[in-house]
Structures are given as structure tokens and as C-alpha cells.
């Protein structure tokens, strides 16, 4: 929720500052609020390392995955996520004058790990979508016709979930590249409102998925 609000404030604030000069003061205040919420999220992530480590350890080498490609990108994605956190912590500590290091380098490194994780997530989602659609609509018509209705619905729901995850990761990857040093693709070229728009879309998709997953978990099995 903090993430969604932060990006929404950035979207509205960016539009007001760049498109509505008469309300630029309100836009500036919204951008300040967005910045503070982002800082809040950075501080809260100081406590996420253990949870991430436990998840990475439980997943291991992805022995439960049927596809070797999905297994590889998932393991690499977990590793990128695990390395992202300490890099961001060091950057935060440098900005807070706790550590005497160049924070810019650590922010760049953390953003690079985040972008790598998103890129691997996109590859994983594409692979999962192709595999699931092949099972649902592939040449083995006789096999798909024998699928139980509940299993078929579950596979269709998984396809939709992977599509939403893909779109969310693409939006976040666009912002991740924007925050890299100038000269890397479109780094630094996005206006504030576009960063806010992409972040808002990604956040709303994540919220929708979480609500949808909760509703499906509570729904009775027919």
C-alpha cells in the first residue's frame, strides 16, 4: 500500500508540476510526500534480508520445477534478489552518514540487481505462459479434452496470473533502467509523471493479484 500511494503521489505531483503551473506548489508537495514514502520503504526493507534468505533456502535449486529453464531463471532471480538487499542497505547507510562510502555506486549496484531480477522474472513468466498455453491449446487435443474442469480453470488462472506478473515486471524494469547511470539505454530520460505512472500500474497489478489470490484461496472447491 505504501508503494502504491508513493507512486500515485508521484504521478499526480509530476503532472501538476509539468502540466499545470498554477498548481505546481501542490505538485511539489506531493512529490515530497512521494519521496518520503519511498524513503520509508527503503528503511522497512532493512528487515527483509532474513525473510528473503529463508525463501531462497526453501526454494533451493528448484527441484520441484518441471522445466529446467524455469528452474535456472528462478534460482538466478533469487540470487539477484538476495544480493539486492545488502547493496541497498549500504547505499542507505552511506546517505545517512553511517558508512563512509560512495552511496551512488551502491545505489547503482542495487538497481542493477533489481533490474536483473526483473529481467529474469520476465523470462520466467514468458516461459510459463508458453508452457501452460501449450498444454491447454497444443496439438494434444485428446489430452486437453480429458483435463478435469477444475484443473483446466486452475491452469487458465495461472496463465492470467503470469501475464499480470509479466506486465508488472516490465513496468518496473522500465523504471529500473531509468534509475541507472546516464548513457544506459533510456536512463534518466523519463519525466516524473511517467515514473509515477509505471510504478502505479505495477503496484496496482500486484495489489490486484494479492486480492485475487486471497479470494481464490477462500473460495470453496466445486
Automatic annotation (TrEMBL):
Transmembrane segments: 106-126
Keyword field contains Transmembrane helix: yes
Matching Pfam families: PEX11 (PF05648)
Alphabetical keyword list: Membrane, Peroxisome, Transmembrane, Transmembrane helix
InterPro entries with a match to the protein in the record: PEX11, PEX11C_met
CC per GO annotation: peroxisomal membrane; protein-containing complex
Subcellular localization, as worded in the UniProt entry: Peroxisome membrane
Location (main, coarse): membrane
An annotated GO BP: regulation of peroxisome size
Protein known as: Peroxisomal biogenesis factor 11 gamma
Organism of this sequence: Ursus maritimus (Polar bear)
Organism phylogeny: Eukaryota, Metazoa, Chordata, Craniata, Vertebrata
Protein's gene: PEX11G
